[in-house]
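This part of the workshop introduces the protein records we will be handling. Getting from the letters to the tokens is the skill we practise here. An example says more than a description, so a record of this kind follows:
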Amino acid sequence: MQNAAISIPDDERELVTFRVGDQDFCIDIVYVREIRGWTPATVLPHAPEYVLGVINLRGAIVPIVDLARRLGLPKTELGDRHVIVIAVVADQTVGFLVDAVSDIIGVPPSAIQPTPDVTAQTTRMFIQGVIALEDRMLRLIDISSVLPPLAAQVTV
């Protein structure tokens, strides 16, 4: 008996959805390495306010970013319910602190609407687009835009 692979139509993007504050966001699943429970981070002196510190992930030192702070939302009040989404962008591995991971969805590219022009430049820099679902609105994060300043400022 062969294992049947789950097939995603070629014309759909697979996205991991999560909550930050009271808002819904998502990133492309190709960047996600793993999702793990909250682990206290070792603080780095002089790191940007959105960098909580670093953790040891099976021998690799990984910076942890409070995604809420990075996106200009109120600071996350840490608790055991929070999770870290470990993502890899280019050669940089980083953990993003989020409130909870919701699910994995497939959406056609046509479902991703452009970020409205009335938003701040910072919003347009971090948000690739908006996806309207039946009961919620998802913001698609441009993970490569969120990461570069971190890579330049945090060297371990």
Summary: The first helix runs from residue 67 to 70. The helical segments are 67-70, 121-126, 143-146, 148-153. The chain has one domain: 13-153. The chain has four helices and eleven strands.
